[in-house]
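#onboarding

Welcome to the new folks! Below is a worked example of what a typical request in this channel looks like: someone posts a single protein sequence, and someone else replies with the predicted structure as tokens. Don't worry about understanding the tokens yet, we'll cover that in week two.

Example request:
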Amino acid sequence: MSIEVKIPPLPESVSDAVIAAWHKKPGEHVRRDENLVDIETDKVVLEVPAPKDGILTDIVEAEGNTVVAGQLIGRLDTGEGAVAKPEAGADEPAAKNKAANASPAVRKLLAEHNLHAEQIEGTGKHGRILKEDVEHFLSGRGAAAKAAPAPASQPTAPAPQVRAPQISAEGRPEQRVPMTRLRARVAERLVQAQHNAALLTTFNEVNMQPVLDLRSRYKDSFEKRHGVRLGFMSFFVKACCEALKRFPEVNASIDGNDIVYHGFFDIGIAVSSERGLVVPILRDVDQLSAADIESQIKDYAERARDGRLDIEELTGGTFSITNGGVFGSMLSTPIINPPQSAILGMHSIKERPVVENGEIVIRPMMYLALSYDHRLIDGSAAVRFLVTVKESLEDPARILLGV
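Example response:
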């Protein structure tokens, strides 16, 4: 019996997708719920599992093709004799599918180091293998240890389709790599922001010594109690939330001829991944503790690296924060994420001489940048918003007391 493999329903905000990578070839056995193919939208990579045990007989849509929800992409033979028989001494079904259930980044790491998924003990949900699990295994294996040969049918992670080196018109070597859906969408939205908004950026600097002192004093007890490290982002999220309450226009958006003032505070946190920059959303940050914020950001960062963020987690948001400082940036002008009206840019902390009470002292300073849509936000409101963030960070008690 032959059954059709179709693209599952896509999220409401996603109109189509691209076939990123097939993990089975025609003629190969496949088990029910094993990942057959990765499809890439403009936000996330989604997996299409096999509906039943069987043999993949036909691939209708090849890698790189654009597809829509409900479109036929392949066929399975599920008739008698088509189902793969388990090998003698095989592990439980869940163990057999460990590689298929792993993220693209994990599968890529397994393939690079010629590893079996069954060699790795997964610490993720339902025993799922995380990237950290593979790295931990590699660090403990030792350089002299040899990895077991990878099975012939082990899936590989999706990778850019790099064409063979070519010679340009000027006689110089070059390569062409198709732009990913995520990169294309990011480019589209950035150009949209530049064309459709009156962008302006205001700057300030903040003395990070009070935050550093607070972290140094409580980081061990914080991690022991909450199971997550105390980072900088919770301070910035809390400071921005307080500023957004005081300046609601910064938390608003433009919809046609209307201004929409949001009665909630959903802050996007820019996260770098192998596929590019993504901005998962922290919902209702005014109701979150510092531990909640740090825990969610850690979870988002891990799943962004593995391409496991859900579409809903990347949709919406009323304000964004991006931290170029982790890459060494000293100063930048971030671009807003439409339909949001503002974004805060963090930068590197550098010790610099500053004047305090008439004396020159050395302090750990950070430049802050607030890019905003001048159609909605006046310059005075933008400056005062940034000053509020600065004051909250230089005196963290303000965040607790709301002053």
